[in-house]
Every structure is written in C-alpha cells, then in structure tokens.
Amino acid sequence: MIETFETVAKAVADPNRTRILKLLEGGELCVCQITTVINLSPGGISKHLNALKAAGLVQQRRGGKWVYYRLADREINPNATQFLALLRDSLNDDPTVVEDRELLSHVNFIPLGILCAQGRAAIAPVVDEPLSSPCCGVSP
Amino acid sequence: MIETFETVAKAVADPNRTRILKLLEGGELCVCQITTVINLSPGGISKHLNALKAAGLVQQRRGGKWVYYRLADREINPNATQFLALLRDSLNDDPTVVEDRELLSHVNFIPLGILCAQGRAAIAPVVDEPLSSPCCGVSP
DNA sequence: CTATCATTTTACCAATTAGCAAAATGATAG
DNA sequence: CTATCATTTTGCTAATTGGTAAAATGATAG
C-alpha cells in the first residue's frame, strides 16, 4: 500500500512526466504528438509513459497505426486519482507547462502522418520564430 | 516553479520520508523519537528531515538539547500544503503507518533523555513481544 | 572553559534511474 | 506475404540517491 503510493509519487516526481500529464489534461494524445512537444527520444517518452501507466495515472488505446494515451478515467488506483486531482490544480501558470500547451496547439493542426514522420521539423519554423521579426512584406 | 513541484514530489516519493510525515501528523517530534520509530541511522534521518525541510513540508524548532520537527504550518510553499493535505487523506490504513503509530504511542512514554541515550533498546522488550506469550505467573 | 550529548555534515558504497541509440515488436497498407 | 512505420524494449552510460559510519557542529550542564 505504501509501495503503491510511492510508485505514484515517484511517477509524478519527474518533470518530464508531469509535463506529459499536464498535456494529457487537454485530452488524449498519440505518442508522437507527446514526443514532439516534450522533445525527447521516442524510447524515452515510451519509458515515461510506461511508468505513468504502471502507476495507474494514464491509460492506453490503440487507434489504427497509433497509440493514444489519456489520463486514467477508470479508477484503477485511488492514490493515482488523488494525485491527478492535485496536479490539475497545480502548475497551470508554470512557464514550461504554458509553453507546452502553446506548442501543442500548433501540433494539433498537423496530421499525424506528417507529424510522426517529420517530428519537430513539421513545426520548427514556428518554434524558432520569436515574436515580432520583421517578416514578409514589411517595407524596405 | 515546476522545479519546486518536483522537489516536493520527490521528497514525498520516498517511503521513509512519508512515514516521517505521517508520524508528524500526530504533532511535533524530536529527532531521536523519529529515529527510534523509523529505525535508521541518525545521519540518515537527519538527511531525510533536511529534504523535507527543503521542500517546505516541515519546520524546525530547537527546544533545549533537542530539535523538534513539525509539519509546515506557515505557508512556505503552496505545493507543499497541497501534498500534505493529500497525504493526510492517504495511507491511514497502511500497515507500516499503523505500526509506526503504535510504536510511537509507546515511545511517547519514554523521557527524551533516556530515549536519546538508549534508542530502540528503551522499548525493545515491548517490540519483540508478539501478542499472547505465556508470561509472568501463568501456572506451571 | 570543558565535557557531554543530540544533531548535522561528510565520505563513501550500492542501487536506481534518466537519457540515447539501436534492435525488436507488432499493426497496417500494398 | 512483404514492406513500412509507430511504438516498445534493450543494452549501455552518466548522474542521482539512500544508506551507514565517522567526523564536525553547536548547545547545554557542570
């Protein structure tokens, strides 16, 4: 029992995993979408997702070619539910979380086929553009 | 910000530290009381307490020869407050936590001077006695 | 001021973990 | 069936962490 609690707390105690959980608060995502936003190797993301699943924090579903993850809705583990509730009220103003959400909003426009193939390159131009660079059509 | 959250979550994600926090829910305790119940080396306990303090989960107070720790009451860190609330509703039926509380109830009868000097030996006879050993005055 | 004693810090070891690259898996499309 | 492609698993390395023993600290009592 204390072991279960520990598993969940450990799963939450990693910044990349909390970032993933905060992303999933917006609804389910496929692995390559998560990978694009968090910017780790696919293997690394998969391992994190596995840790979250083992803790009962997320669930999986295959849809065609892709695997989608979402926050656990079925109550597998009461500890997990409580941690998810805590997390929902936390970090909403965290710069990294805000940035991830912003990036995700761009990612959402990209068809999965293209996104999975190209990864971050599919959105790179948007990413590197800071704010008000004098672009396209400003008078010489 | 996410770093603070991570610090708190990491602090909670260790079973010996959660045991300490659950003990402190009953009120402040001096280091040697905690050491006796958790049964780690003093150095180890001190390090755990330091991690909890760094996370804003506990506070310190010196009283004469001894240092007392308690759950953070001043709101140092909103994350910490939330985790403490979560923890208060968790693990209350956990065997280890229950056992720790039981042991603490015995420890509470022992003057600190004796407890700090003798450590677990001061309560050892109670600890090893299971339940109904045929003791003192049962007919031959 | 010195000795004592609770606590903290330090030095070190064993175990765990996050990360990547590359191989393995397993589903889909032809 | 075979090829492709998303995801997972598998070594492997570097870094972190929990534990102890022992030295250092710092307050108290004589």
CATH topology-level fold name of chain A: Arc Repressor Mutant, subunit A
Largest sheet strand order of chain A: 1-3-2
Unreliable spans of chain A: 126-135
Annotated CATH homologous superfamily of chain A = Winged helix-like DNA-binding domain superfamily/Winged helix DNA-binding domain
CATH class of chain A: Mainly Alpha
**CA-to-CA gap between the ends of chain A?**
69 Å
Task: Find the biggest chain interface.
Answer: A-B, 25 and 25 residues
Largest β-sheet summary of chain A: 3 strands, antiparallel
Could you tell me the strand content of chain A as a percent range? 5-15%
Helix fraction of chain A?
A: 55-70%
State mean pLDDT of chain A (0 to 100 scale).
Answer: 87
**How large, in whole angstroms, is the Cα Rg of chain A?**
17 Å
**Overall tally of structural domains of chain A:** 1
Number of helices of chain A: 8
Assembly category: homodimer
The backbone outline of chain A, from C-alpha atoms, is: globular
- By DSSP, the count of extended strands of chain A is 3
Structural class of the secondary elements of chain A? mainly alpha
